[in-house]
Amino acid sequence: MENQTHAQNQRVPVIQVSGLKKQYKLGQIGGGTLTHDLQSWWARVRGKEDPNTVIGTDARLFGKTFMALNGVDLTVYKGEALGIIGRNGAGKSTLLKILSRITAPTEGEIRLRGRVASMLEVGTGFNNEMTGRENIYMNGAILGMTRAEVDSKIDQIIEFSECGDFIDTPVKRYSSGMFVKLAFSVAAHLDSEIMVMDEVLAVGDMKFQQKCLGKMSDVAGQEGRTVLYVSHNMSTIRQLCTRCVVLDQGRVIFDGDVEQAIAVYMETTDVNVVHYDLLDVSRMNASAGKRMRLETLDFVGKESSVFADTEKIRVRITWRVSEPFTGVHLKLNLHFRDSTPVGITHPVNLGAAVPGKLYTTEFEFDPSLLGEGQYFFYVDVFDGVLTQAVCLDKPVTEFAFEVTSGDLTMPEWAPGWGRIHFPPVNVLENGYDG
What we know:
Blueprint: H1 2-10, E1 13-25, H2 34-45, E2 65-77, E3 81-85, H3 92-99, E4 107-112, E5 116-119, H4 132-142, H5 147-161, H6 176-189, E6 194-198, H7 206-221, E7 226-230, H8 234-240, E8 243-248, E9 251-256, H9 258-267, E10 275-277, E11 292-299, E12 306-308, E13 313-321, E14 329-336, E15 341-344, E16 348-349, E17 359-365, E18 373-383, E19 390-393, E20 399-404
Helix pairs in contact: 4-5, 5-6, 6-7
């Protein structure tokens, strides 16, 4: 009977998107203050360089447009847990922001049947000066709930969040992990027909991640609410979602079975690109690329980024700084092609740097421990030691490469065992006592 009810729920559309487009004008972002905006306007009028332009920004992009979404059609049914996956820049977050009414579409039609509770980044919808308890009531009011209705839920919210000892403390004093726990708990327990989640489990600890996945499964399966979940972690997509959509360059290129969607997503990895222009790509966070900016990245001496596990991967980057640094550090965040993390490289010091110069750095790393397959890495440049690192630059670009193996003695195993080929065990003694 329960399965019949769930099947019926799935046929009730709660989100209908038709011909959805979102266009951004590049280079036309406010400076944050009226003074900065006036300075930028006056510089353009006189044909001078904008004094507030981020280092490395190409002024030729001013006024050009970028289609973040380019004709998305999508129907989501009641009780579904829908995964949305795709490479960085595919349009995933833009779609969720439009569905959450944070930004408006350029073209297209959206129909929502029910209230939307969204958690798109740490602290969304929270007032830093208010306590955790006050923020719970504020979020309830935003959803149209009465104080009595929030009262009936607040004990569950506090218990689930594991923030009970700090619930009457201003949330500006919360760690990022506490922020995530409380924000997720609020979104999951307050009355809404649609939950929208964007990479919300990336900060919390593993135990709480599993707790959240279990709650989202209950929300969709038992409570009949609809969950939209964006993640680069394919294992959580597999665990939670009953259906999956793949976005690429602002379009839906697949809609259906989760495993088939992951396979389609992995095929979007391009191992034939050996040169990347990084000046004008977006960055991972607001501070990245302002004091130091990567301009290009190349795989050196290659026509494709396919490497035997016996050869070193050599990479060349060019970069500039806008202020002096005594030491600029770099590491690579390595992922398998389905976005599951493989590891990070040991940080290296690129040395001191002064403004006004274009620096070129070549480095190499050894892929011999990696199993056959396609991978990608992010470049992360920072100032200070790793435990107290301040991000200088981190482009939203996946640098793809492939590793091939010539070792016929290496046994095959399921991907669940990981992608690292450890050295063989060194047998110190073997035999029997006769």
